[in-house]
Amino acid sequence: MKLSTIFLLSTIGLLSVYASDVVDGEVTDDAPKAAQEEDDLTIGASPDAGLAFHFVQPADANVLHEFYTGKPVKFLIGFQNKGEKDFVVKFSETSFRYPTDYNYHLQNFTRGEYNRRVAPKEEVTLDYGFYAHESFAGRPVGLVVNVHYQDADGNAFVNNVFNQTVNILEDDSGFSGETGFLFIFFIALSIGGLYLANQFLSKLSRKSGLSKRRVVEQGTSSEVDFEWIPRDAVKNKEKKSPVAGSPKARKSAKKAD
Amino acid sequence: MQFSLFFLLVAAVTCADVGTQTKDAFVLAHKQPLSTYAVENMDFVLEYGLYNVGDKPAQKVTIDDRHSFPTNSFEIVKGLLHVHYEKIPAGGNVTHSVVIRPRAFGFFNYTAAQVTYYTDNENLHVTLTNTPGEGYIYRQREYDRRFAPKYTYFLIFFFIVAPTTLGSFLLFQQSKARFPNIVKKKTT
Lengths: 257, 188
What we know:
CATH superfamily of the largest domain in chain B: Immunoglobulins
Shape of chain A: elongated
Structural class of chain B: alpha+beta
Number of strands of chain A: 9
Oligomer: heterodimer
Strand order of the largest sheet of chain B: 1-3-7-5
Order of helices and strands of chain B: HEEEEEEEEEEEHHH
Number of domains of chain B: 2
CATH architecture of the largest domain in chain B: Sandwich
Largest sheet of chain B: 4 strands, antiparallel
Number of strands of chain B: 11
Radius of gyration of chain A: 43 Å
CATH topology of the domain at 49-169 in chain A: Immunoglobulin-like
Number of helices of chain A: 6
Structural class of chain A: alpha+beta
Distance between the termini of chain A: 153 Å
Protein backbone atom coordinates (compact mmCIF):
# COMPACT_ATOMS: atom_id res chain seq x y z
CA MET A 1 0.00 0.00 0.00
CA LYS A 2 2.83 2.36 0.92
CA LEU A 3 4.70 1.70 -2.31
CA SER A 4 1.63 2.25 -4.44
CA THR A 5 0.92 5.62 -2.82
CA ILE A 6 4.51 6.70 -3.41
CA PHE A 7 4.28 5.80 -7.06
CA LEU A 8 0.95 7.54 -7.37
CA LEU A 9 2.34 10.71 -5.80
CA SER A 10 5.43 10.69 -7.99
CA THR A 11 3.40 10.27 -11.17
CA ILE A 12 1.12 13.12 -10.11
CA GLY A 13 4.19 15.25 -9.43
CA LEU A 14 5.71 14.41 -12.78
CA LEU A 15 2.50 15.23 -14.59
CA SER A 16 2.10 18.53 -12.83
CA VAL A 17 5.69 19.52 -13.56
CA TYR A 18 5.22 18.59 -17.20
CA ALA A 19 2.05 20.61 -17.43
CA SER A 20 3.58 23.68 -15.84
CA ASP A 21 6.75 23.42 -17.90
CA VAL A 22 4.87 23.20 -21.14
CA VAL A 23 3.14 26.43 -20.23
CA ASP A 24 6.15 28.55 -19.39
CA GLY A 25 9.12 26.78 -20.97
CA GLU A 26 8.16 26.67 -24.58
CA VAL A 27 7.95 29.56 -26.96
CA THR A 28 4.22 29.70 -27.50
CA ASP A 29 1.67 32.17 -28.66
CA ASP A 30 1.04 35.61 -27.29
CA ALA A 31 -0.60 35.87 -23.90
CA PRO A 32 -4.34 35.27 -24.21
CA LYS A 33 -5.09 38.81 -23.02
CA ALA A 34 -2.93 40.35 -25.72
CA ALA A 35 -4.54 38.10 -28.31
CA GLN A 36 -7.93 39.40 -27.26
CA GLU A 37 -6.73 42.98 -27.55
CA GLU A 38 -5.92 42.45 -31.20
CA ASP A 39 -8.70 42.08 -33.69
CA ASP A 40 -7.91 38.43 -34.52
CA LEU A 41 -9.31 36.63 -31.53
CA THR A 42 -8.29 33.00 -31.53
CA ILE A 43 -4.98 33.02 -33.33
CA GLY A 44 -2.22 30.94 -31.83
CA ALA A 45 0.87 29.04 -32.78
CA SER A 46 0.94 26.09 -35.12
CA PRO A 47 2.36 22.86 -33.66
CA ASP A 48 4.24 22.24 -36.92
CA ALA A 49 6.28 25.43 -36.73
CA GLY A 50 9.52 25.78 -34.79
CA LEU A 51 10.81 29.26 -34.19
CA ALA A 52 14.10 30.62 -32.96
CA PHE A 53 15.27 34.09 -32.11
CA HIS A 54 18.76 35.56 -31.99
CA PHE A 55 20.17 39.09 -31.67
CA VAL A 56 22.94 39.89 -34.13
CA GLN A 57 23.82 43.51 -33.77
CA PRO A 58 24.63 44.18 -30.14
CA ALA A 59 26.38 40.84 -29.85
CA ASP A 60 25.84 40.62 -26.10
CA ALA A 61 22.13 41.47 -26.26
CA ASN A 62 21.20 37.77 -26.17
CA VAL A 63 22.54 37.55 -22.62
CA LEU A 64 22.36 41.07 -21.21
CA HIS A 65 19.17 42.33 -22.89
CA GLU A 66 20.62 45.81 -23.22
CA PHE A 67 20.53 48.17 -26.21
CA TYR A 68 22.03 51.55 -26.87
CA THR A 69 19.97 54.38 -28.29
CA GLY A 70 20.80 55.52 -31.79
CA LYS A 71 22.55 52.28 -32.64
CA PRO A 72 20.97 49.64 -34.83
CA VAL A 73 19.48 46.60 -33.15
CA LYS A 74 19.30 43.62 -35.50
CA PHE A 75 17.91 40.21 -34.87
CA LEU A 76 17.23 37.01 -36.74
CA ILE A 77 14.13 34.86 -36.63
CA GLY A 78 14.44 31.25 -37.60
CA PHE A 79 11.35 29.48 -38.92
CA GLN A 80 11.30 25.72 -39.21
CA ASN A 81 8.53 23.83 -40.97
CA LYS A 82 8.14 20.50 -39.20
CA GLY A 83 4.82 19.61 -40.81
CA GLU A 84 3.73 18.28 -44.17
CA LYS A 85 2.22 21.42 -45.66
CA ASP A 86 3.75 24.65 -46.89
CA PHE A 87 3.84 27.67 -44.65
CA VAL A 88 3.97 31.27 -45.79
CA VAL A 89 5.64 33.61 -43.32
CA LYS A 90 3.80 36.87 -43.80
CA PHE A 91 5.41 39.45 -41.55
CA SER A 92 6.87 40.16 -38.14
CA GLU A 93 5.69 42.89 -35.83
CA THR A 94 7.95 44.44 -33.25
CA SER A 95 6.79 46.71 -30.49
CA PHE A 96 7.90 48.35 -27.28
CA ARG A 97 5.51 47.82 -24.38
CA TYR A 98 5.23 49.35 -20.97
CA PRO A 99 7.25 46.97 -18.77
CA THR A 100 4.67 46.66 -16.03
CA ASP A 101 1.71 46.41 -18.39
CA TYR A 102 2.41 44.71 -21.68
CA ASN A 103 -0.99 45.68 -23.08
CA TYR A 104 0.18 49.28 -23.25
CA HIS A 105 2.10 49.92 -26.45
CA LEU A 106 4.86 52.52 -26.22
CA GLN A 107 5.96 52.21 -29.84
CA ASN A 108 5.02 50.00 -32.74
CA PHE A 109 7.78 49.48 -35.26
CA THR A 110 7.22 49.03 -38.96
CA ARG A 111 6.27 45.51 -39.90
CA GLY A 112 8.96 43.40 -41.46
CA GLU A 113 7.26 42.09 -44.59
CA TYR A 114 8.62 38.73 -45.70
CA ASN A 115 6.04 36.66 -47.64
CA ARG A 116 8.43 33.73 -47.74
CA ARG A 117 7.18 30.29 -48.60
CA VAL A 118 8.66 27.54 -46.45
CA ALA A 119 8.41 24.05 -47.87
CA PRO A 120 7.98 21.05 -45.53
CA LYS A 121 11.19 20.08 -43.70
CA GLU A 122 12.76 23.37 -44.65
CA GLU A 123 13.89 26.32 -42.63
CA VAL A 124 14.11 30.00 -43.34
CA THR A 125 15.92 32.81 -41.59
CA LEU A 126 14.35 36.24 -41.49
CA ASP A 127 15.90 39.45 -40.30
CA TYR A 128 14.68 42.69 -38.82
CA GLY A 129 16.35 45.75 -37.38
CA PHE A 130 15.35 48.92 -35.59
CA TYR A 131 16.72 51.86 -33.66
CA ALA A 132 15.67 52.64 -30.11
CA HIS A 133 14.80 56.30 -29.83
CA GLU A 134 16.71 58.57 -27.44
CA SER A 135 13.61 59.21 -25.37
CA PHE A 136 13.73 55.60 -24.13
CA ALA A 137 17.27 56.05 -22.80
CA GLY A 138 17.90 54.85 -19.29
CA ARG A 139 14.71 52.90 -18.75
CA PRO A 140 13.41 49.39 -19.23
CA VAL A 141 10.85 48.60 -21.91
CA GLY A 142 9.10 45.40 -22.88
CA LEU A 143 10.19 44.21 -26.29
CA VAL A 144 7.68 41.96 -28.05
CA VAL A 145 8.30 40.33 -31.41
CA ASN A 146 5.48 38.39 -33.06
CA VAL A 147 5.68 36.42 -36.27
CA HIS A 148 2.55 36.04 -38.39
CA TYR A 149 2.31 33.15 -40.81
CA GLN A 150 -0.20 31.09 -42.78
CA ASP A 151 -0.44 27.47 -43.72
CA ALA A 152 -1.43 26.17 -47.16
CA ASP A 153 -5.14 26.17 -46.21
CA GLY A 154 -5.04 29.86 -45.36
CA ASN A 155 -5.19 29.44 -41.59
CA ALA A 156 -3.39 32.29 -39.91
CA PHE A 157 -1.03 31.74 -36.99
CA VAL A 158 0.91 34.02 -34.69
CA ASN A 159 4.03 33.05 -32.80
CA ASN A 160 5.65 35.11 -30.13
CA VAL A 161 9.42 34.81 -30.42
CA PHE A 162 10.61 37.45 -27.99
CA ASN A 163 8.72 38.77 -25.01
CA GLN A 164 11.00 40.19 -22.36
CA THR A 165 11.96 43.39 -20.66
CA VAL A 166 15.08 45.00 -22.08
CA ASN A 167 17.13 47.89 -20.77
CA ILE A 168 17.83 50.78 -23.08
CA LEU A 169 21.03 52.64 -22.32
CA GLU A 170 22.23 56.02 -23.42
CA ASP A 171 24.93 55.91 -26.04
CA ASP A 172 27.92 57.78 -24.59
CA SER A 173 30.70 56.24 -26.66
CA GLY A 174 30.55 58.51 -29.68
CA PHE A 175 31.15 62.25 -30.07
CA SER A 176 28.01 64.20 -29.35
CA GLY A 177 27.73 67.62 -30.93
CA GLU A 178 26.21 69.22 -27.88
CA THR A 179 29.02 68.38 -25.45
CA GLY A 180 31.64 69.03 -28.12
CA PHE A 181 30.47 72.56 -28.73
CA LEU A 182 30.12 73.14 -25.00
CA PHE A 183 33.76 72.16 -24.64
CA ILE A 184 34.84 74.52 -27.42
CA PHE A 185 32.79 77.30 -25.82
CA PHE A 186 34.52 76.75 -22.46
CA ILE A 187 37.96 76.89 -24.09
CA ALA A 188 37.05 80.16 -25.80
CA LEU A 189 35.72 81.54 -22.51
CA SER A 190 38.92 80.65 -20.66
CA ILE A 191 41.09 82.28 -23.35
CA GLY A 192 38.98 85.41 -23.10
CA GLY A 193 39.31 85.34 -19.31
CA LEU A 194 43.09 85.07 -19.56
CA TYR A 195 43.20 88.02 -21.96
CA LEU A 196 41.10 90.17 -19.64
CA ALA A 197 43.22 89.21 -16.63
CA ASN A 198 46.35 90.15 -18.55
CA GLN A 199 44.89 93.54 -19.42
CA PHE A 200 43.86 94.21 -15.85
CA LEU A 201 47.25 93.23 -14.43
CA SER A 202 49.18 95.36 -16.91
CA LYS A 203 46.97 98.35 -16.03
CA LEU A 204 47.67 97.82 -12.33
CA SER A 205 51.42 97.64 -12.88
CA ARG A 206 51.33 100.88 -14.95
CA LYS A 207 49.53 102.74 -12.16
CA SER A 208 51.97 101.66 -9.52
CA GLY A 209 54.89 103.60 -10.99
CA LEU A 210 57.14 102.65 -13.84
CA SER A 211 56.35 106.02 -15.41
CA LYS A 212 57.44 106.05 -19.02
CA ARG A 213 59.18 108.98 -20.61
CA ARG A 214 56.62 110.99 -22.48
CA VAL A 215 57.20 111.17 -26.18
CA VAL A 216 56.01 114.36 -27.71
CA GLU A 217 55.09 114.07 -31.35
CA GLN A 218 56.81 116.80 -33.37
CA GLY A 219 55.86 115.91 -36.87
CA THR A 220 58.00 114.47 -39.58
CA SER A 221 61.30 116.10 -40.44
CA SER A 222 61.12 118.59 -43.29
CA GLU A 223 63.76 116.85 -45.35
CA VAL A 224 62.09 114.74 -47.97
CA ASP A 225 63.97 111.86 -49.41
CA PHE A 226 63.18 112.07 -53.09
CA GLU A 227 65.25 109.11 -53.91
CA TRP A 228 62.51 106.52 -53.38
CA ILE A 229 59.96 108.29 -55.51
CA PRO A 230 60.08 106.99 -59.04
CA ARG A 231 61.49 109.43 -61.56
CA ASP A 232 58.39 109.63 -63.72
CA ALA A 233 56.25 110.53 -60.72
CA VAL A 234 58.59 113.41 -59.76
CA LYS A 235 58.55 114.67 -63.33
CA ASN A 236 54.80 114.58 -63.31
CA LYS A 237 54.73 116.82 -60.29
CA GLU A 238 57.14 119.30 -61.86
CA LYS A 239 55.05 119.52 -64.98
CA LYS A 240 51.66 120.06 -63.54
CA SER A 241 50.83 121.03 -60.00
CA PRO A 242 47.72 119.45 -58.58
CA VAL A 243 44.72 121.67 -58.12
CA ALA A 244 44.83 123.30 -54.72
CA GLY A 245 41.96 122.76 -52.35
CA SER A 246 40.48 126.24 -52.08
CA PRO A 247 41.14 129.78 -53.36
CA LYS A 248 42.27 130.85 -49.89
CA ALA A 249 44.92 128.20 -49.85
CA ARG A 250 46.02 129.19 -53.34
CA LYS A 251 46.41 132.79 -52.26
CA SER A 252 48.51 131.93 -49.26
CA ALA A 253 50.66 129.73 -51.47
CA LYS A 254 51.26 132.63 -53.87
CA LYS A 255 52.22 134.93 -51.01
CA ALA A 256 54.70 132.45 -49.80
CA ASP A 257 56.30 132.28 -53.24
CA MET B 1 9.94 6.36 3.17
CA GLN B 2 9.71 10.11 3.16
CA PHE B 3 13.23 10.31 1.83
CA SER B 4 12.46 7.97 -1.03
CA LEU B 5 9.37 9.99 -1.88
CA PHE B 6 11.47 13.17 -1.99
CA PHE B 7 14.08 11.42 -4.13
CA LEU B 8 11.46 10.28 -6.62
CA LEU B 9 10.05 13.78 -6.84
CA VAL B 10 13.50 15.25 -7.52
CA ALA B 11 14.11 12.62 -10.18
CA ALA B 12 10.78 13.41 -11.80
CA VAL B 13 11.53 17.16 -11.84
CA THR B 14 14.97 16.71 -13.43
CA CYS B 15 13.60 14.32 -16.04
CA ALA B 16 10.86 16.75 -16.98
CA ASP B 17 13.34 19.61 -17.19
CA VAL B 18 15.64 17.75 -19.52
CA GLY B 19 12.70 16.67 -21.64
CA THR B 20 11.51 20.19 -22.32
CA GLN B 21 14.88 21.86 -22.75
CA THR B 22 16.76 19.63 -25.12
CA LYS B 23 16.71 21.19 -28.57
CA ASP B 24 18.41 20.09 -31.72
CA ALA B 25 20.90 22.22 -33.54
CA PHE B 26 19.17 25.15 -35.17
CA VAL B 27 21.28 27.25 -37.52
CA LEU B 28 20.22 30.78 -38.35
CA ALA B 29 21.83 31.96 -41.55
CA HIS B 30 22.27 35.60 -42.32
CA LYS B 31 23.32 37.33 -45.54
CA GLN B 32 24.14 40.98 -45.58
CA PRO B 33 25.93 43.42 -47.87
CA LEU B 34 28.63 45.39 -46.10
CA SER B 35 29.15 47.91 -48.90
CA THR B 36 26.74 50.81 -48.94
CA TYR B 37 26.70 51.15 -52.73
CA ALA B 38 26.97 48.54 -55.41
CA VAL B 39 28.76 50.02 -58.41
CA GLU B 40 29.67 48.36 -61.68
CA ASN B 41 33.34 47.35 -61.84
CA MET B 42 33.88 48.19 -58.19
CA ASP B 43 34.25 45.88 -55.21
CA PHE B 44 31.16 44.82 -53.32
CA VAL B 45 31.52 43.03 -49.98
CA LEU B 46 29.01 40.47 -48.75
CA GLU B 47 28.92 38.84 -45.36
CA TYR B 48 27.33 35.57 -44.35
CA GLY B 49 26.73 34.77 -40.71
CA LEU B 50 25.80 31.40 -39.26
CA TYR B 51 24.49 31.23 -35.69
CA ASN B 52 23.79 27.92 -34.02
CA VAL B 53 21.08 28.69 -31.48
CA GLY B 54 20.32 25.06 -30.68
CA ASP B 55 21.69 22.97 -27.85
CA LYS B 56 23.63 20.51 -30.00
CA PRO B 57 26.40 21.05 -32.53
CA ALA B 58 25.50 21.33 -36.21
CA GLN B 59 27.61 19.12 -38.45
CA LYS B 60 28.73 19.33 -42.08
CA VAL B 61 27.52 22.87 -42.56
CA THR B 62 27.68 24.25 -46.09
CA ILE B 63 26.84 27.65 -47.50
CA ASP B 64 25.98 27.68 -51.18
CA ASP B 65 25.32 31.01 -52.85
CA ARG B 66 26.57 30.27 -56.34
CA HIS B 67 23.12 30.57 -57.89
CA SER B 68 22.54 34.15 -56.71
CA PHE B 69 25.68 35.59 -58.37
CA PRO B 70 25.87 34.22 -61.92
CA THR B 71 29.37 34.63 -63.31
CA ASN B 72 28.18 36.38 -66.47
CA SER B 73 27.07 39.37 -64.43
CA PHE B 74 29.40 39.12 -61.44
CA GLU B 75 33.11 38.63 -61.08
CA ILE B 76 34.31 36.98 -57.89
CA VAL B 77 37.30 38.93 -56.66
CA LYS B 78 37.98 37.16 -53.42
CA GLY B 79 36.37 34.44 -51.34
CA LEU B 80 34.25 31.41 -52.14
CA LEU B 81 30.53 31.20 -52.73
CA HIS B 82 30.48 27.57 -51.66
CA VAL B 83 32.01 26.85 -48.28
CA HIS B 84 31.99 23.94 -45.92
CA TYR B 85 32.39 23.82 -42.16
CA GLU B 86 32.79 20.52 -40.37
CA LYS B 87 31.04 21.57 -37.19
CA ILE B 88 29.50 24.58 -35.48
CA PRO B 89 29.19 23.99 -31.73
CA ALA B 90 26.07 24.90 -29.79
CA GLY B 91 25.95 28.64 -29.27
CA GLY B 92 28.76 29.19 -31.75
CA ASN B 93 28.76 31.38 -34.80
CA VAL B 94 30.71 31.73 -38.03
CA THR B 95 31.03 34.66 -40.39
CA HIS B 96 32.18 34.38 -43.95
CA SER B 97 32.69 37.19 -46.43
CA VAL B 98 33.04 37.39 -50.17
CA VAL B 99 34.15 40.23 -52.44
CA ILE B 100 32.41 40.38 -55.78
CA ARG B 101 32.40 42.90 -58.62
CA PRO B 102 29.25 43.54 -60.67
CA ARG B 103 29.86 43.63 -64.40
CA ALA B 104 26.77 45.61 -65.35
CA PHE B 105 24.56 48.27 -63.82
CA GLY B 106 20.84 48.20 -63.12
CA PHE B 107 18.46 46.67 -60.63
CA PHE B 108 19.46 43.38 -59.15
CA ASN B 109 17.54 41.07 -56.85
CA TYR B 110 19.71 39.69 -54.08
CA THR B 111 18.17 36.34 -53.25
CA ALA B 112 18.72 33.96 -50.40
CA ALA B 113 21.72 31.71 -49.99
CA GLN B 114 21.17 28.07 -49.16
CA VAL B 115 22.65 26.55 -46.04
CA THR B 116 22.55 22.85 -45.28
CA TYR B 117 23.57 21.10 -42.09
CA TYR B 118 23.19 17.80 -40.33
CA THR B 119 22.01 17.15 -36.80
CA ASP B 120 23.18 13.89 -35.23
CA ASN B 121 24.96 13.04 -38.49
CA GLU B 122 21.81 11.93 -40.25
CA ASN B 123 19.04 14.52 -40.27
CA LEU B 124 19.59 16.90 -43.14
CA HIS B 125 18.34 20.44 -42.62
CA VAL B 126 17.96 22.91 -45.47
CA THR B 127 17.89 26.56 -44.49
CA LEU B 128 17.51 29.64 -46.63
CA THR B 129 18.99 32.91 -45.47
CA ASN B 130 17.19 36.19 -45.37
CA THR B 131 16.92 38.07 -48.66
CA PRO B 132 18.61 41.48 -48.79
CA GLY B 133 16.08 42.28 -51.52
CA GLU B 134 16.23 44.39 -54.63
CA GLY B 135 19.17 46.74 -54.89
CA TYR B 136 20.45 49.11 -57.52
CA ILE B 137 23.88 48.66 -59.04
CA TYR B 138 25.10 52.14 -59.90
CA ARG B 139 26.57 53.10 -63.22
CA GLN B 140 30.23 54.00 -62.79
CA ARG B 141 29.71 57.51 -64.16
CA GLU B 142 26.72 58.09 -61.89
CA TYR B 143 28.78 57.06 -58.89
CA ASP B 144 31.69 59.29 -59.92
CA ARG B 145 29.37 62.25 -60.27
CA ARG B 146 28.31 61.84 -56.67
CA PHE B 147 31.46 60.65 -54.93
CA ALA B 148 34.58 60.96 -57.11
CA PRO B 149 37.02 63.88 -56.56
CA LYS B 150 36.00 66.73 -58.87
CA TYR B 151 39.32 67.85 -60.42
CA THR B 152 37.79 69.18 -63.66
CA TYR B 153 35.42 71.36 -61.66
CA PHE B 154 38.39 72.77 -59.73
CA LEU B 155 40.24 73.52 -62.99
CA ILE B 156 37.27 75.35 -64.48
CA PHE B 157 36.84 77.29 -61.26
CA PHE B 158 40.54 78.26 -61.40
CA PHE B 159 40.13 79.65 -64.92
CA ILE B 160 37.08 81.63 -63.90
CA VAL B 161 38.86 83.08 -60.90
CA ALA B 162 42.17 83.71 -62.72
CA PRO B 163 41.45 87.29 -63.98
CA THR B 164 40.87 88.57 -60.46
CA THR B 165 43.68 86.70 -58.72
CA LEU B 166 46.42 86.18 -61.30
CA GLY B 167 45.65 89.52 -63.01
CA SER B 168 46.02 91.51 -59.84
CA PHE B 169 49.18 89.62 -58.95
CA LEU B 170 50.74 90.57 -62.33
CA LEU B 171 49.77 94.21 -61.85
CA PHE B 172 51.41 94.14 -58.44
CA GLN B 173 54.58 92.70 -59.98
CA GLN B 174 54.62 95.47 -62.59
CA SER B 175 54.37 98.28 -60.07
CA LYS B 176 56.97 96.60 -57.89
CA ALA B 177 59.40 96.62 -60.79
CA ARG B 178 59.16 100.41 -60.86
CA PHE B 179 60.80 100.68 -57.41
CA PRO B 180 64.18 99.02 -57.82
CA ASN B 181 66.08 101.48 -55.55
CA ILE B 182 64.69 100.32 -52.25
CA VAL B 183 65.89 96.81 -52.72
CA LYS B 184 69.33 98.03 -53.71
CA LYS B 185 69.55 100.31 -50.70
CA LYS B 186 68.64 97.61 -48.27
CA THR B 187 71.11 95.13 -49.67
CA THR B 188 73.98 97.63 -49.72
